[in-house]
Amino acid sequence: MEILLISGISGSGKSVALNVVEDAGYYCVDNLPPSLLPDLVTTLTKEGILSAAIAIDTRSATLLTNLPDAIQTLRDQGHEVKVLFLTASTESLVARFSETRRSHPLSHRLAKDKDTGDRLSLTECIQEEREILAGIQLVAHVIDTSDLSANKLRTWVKDMTQIGHTPLTLTFESFAFKIGVPLDADFVFDVRMLPNPHYDPDLRPLTGRDEPVIRYLKEQAMVHEMFDDIRQFIAKWLPAFKRDNRSYLTVAIGCTGGQHRSVYMVEKLAEAFRQDEQVLLRHRRLS
Fold first, then answer.
1. What CATH class does 2-161 carry?
2. Residue 39's closest CA among 84, 73, 62, 7?
């Protein structure tokens, strides 16, 4: 079994790292007491799970002394165990806690004065946490996230774990402007200037998926030109979204009623990209 143990200083990006490997198909567990690690791996192995990521940090502070022994036990059993430790400068951590307005996990557990019950300051909690986790840091691959963006950290975690980038799902969605622009759209294209089959009584009850409407729109030069422009735009910028570690990209095409032109265009675009991309197709106004 491939096991990734994720630990580190609170606020250094453990949740980001855990989400990365979870998106890659790892079975993920957060805040596991180290003493339960061997039993968990035994259970997951019986279930046929081949890769797991387990976050362990100071929330299990009293149990961390058992972690090195637990790691060695797993390696002796033939499991591949990697340990990732995330850290950051105290200045960066203080700024992050200030931005999120969250308290440090140790602030509720460690009293500066047992008589008064005064809590440690944030910087004192960070220093205490460094001391508690020092033993894990010595046996781990360390990443300093002080000046890293979340996206850069995702890339480095993928490199460290040797997992591929999560495939981007490209969604094409038709909608009606008279109802409103969908909030889930990353790009919105307006095709209301194209010839409208609605004004042909024979085509009005049909949709952009019906052959008579398809033939009508195929005969319009403007439709071909619009399709080529949208297709080329998406093809040009799609690699950039993949490099940015995006998991989803939604392209919404709208016409007046969401029945003819937008439906036709979405169907054509999905067909054009389906050979090379993971594509989803949605029509908001069609039953």
1. alpha beta
2. 73
Q: Are 42 and 17 in contact (CB under 8 A)?
A: no
Q: For residue range 156-181, what is the model confidence (pLDDT) as tens digits?
A: 888 877 766 557 889 999 999 999 99
Least confident of 24-28, 41-45, 180-184: 180-184
Q: Is the dihedral of CA 118, 137, 147, 24 positive or negative?
A: negative
The candidate with the shortest Cα–Cα distance to 21, out of 144, 167, 163, 150, is 163
Mean pLDDT, the chain, whole residue set: 88
Ordered by start, the domain boundaries in the chain are 2-161, 169-283
Per the CB < 8 A criterion, the answer to whether 252 and 183 are in contact is no
Please give the helix or strand (H or E) that residue 82 lies within, else none.
Answer: strand 80-87
SS3 content of the chain, % helix, strand, coil (to 5): 45, 20, 35
Local structure of residue 139 (DSSP, 8 states)? T
Ramachandran category for residue 245: left, alpha or beta (phi over 0 → left; psi -120 to 50 → alpha): left
In degrees to the nearest 10, what's the CA dihedral of 144, 146, 150, 154?
-10
